Amino acid sequence: MIIVRDIMTTDLITVTPDMDISRAAKILLDNKINGAPVVDDNGRLVGILCQSDLITQQKKLPIPTVFTFLDSVIRLTSMKQIEKQVRKIAALTVSEAMTPDPVTVGPDTGPETVAALMVDRNFHTLPVVEDSRLVGIIGKEDVLRALLSTYESN
């Protein structure tokens, strides 16, 4: 039976939390990848930076929607959510733009679990973590290659 360890990519392209956002964007574009794991100095996964995180910077600042009811002001958008979007829009470093604590899989995970996560949560890639350290990354192409080799061997 095939597991993630058999099909994951171990030649990793990573970025660091303190890296300038424009440098990180160039790494993604130059390597034609959708995202990159963000690792600290000890190789521990602290986040993931995707092209969508960078595209967020082109959004307009959301204006909170409010209405009054019985002399009370009621916000339809939470201030916490607005603050989070403002931080991403104004990001200068990877740590300000990345998605912290990303969903991960272990090296012994089956491809069906990976496929379900990718489909259900709309992920293109998933970091592979073992003992709190990043050991690989698995993408949709890796899963498709595994499925194709399974079909061809039958």
What general form does the structure show? Answer: globular
Q: Percentage of helical residues?
A: 25-40%
CATH homologous superfamily title: CBS-domain
Q: Sheet with the most strands? A: 3 strands, antiparallel
Distance between the termini: 13 Å
CATH topology: the name is CBS-domain
In the CATH hierarchy, the architecture is Roll
Order of helices and strands: HHEEHEEHHEHEEH
Query: Which class of secondary structure composition applies to the elements?
Result: alpha+beta
Instruction: Strand order, main sheet: write it out.
Output: 1-2-5
| CATH classification, class level | Alpha Beta
The total number of structural domains is 1
Evaluate the radius of gyration.
19 Å
Poorly predicted parts: none
Number of separate helices: 7
Averaged pLDDT, please? 82
Number of strands: 7
Strand content: 15-25%
Feature tags:
7 helices, 22% strand, globular, two-stranded antiparallel ribbon, CBS-domain, alpha+beta, 154 residues, three-stranded antiparallel β-sheet
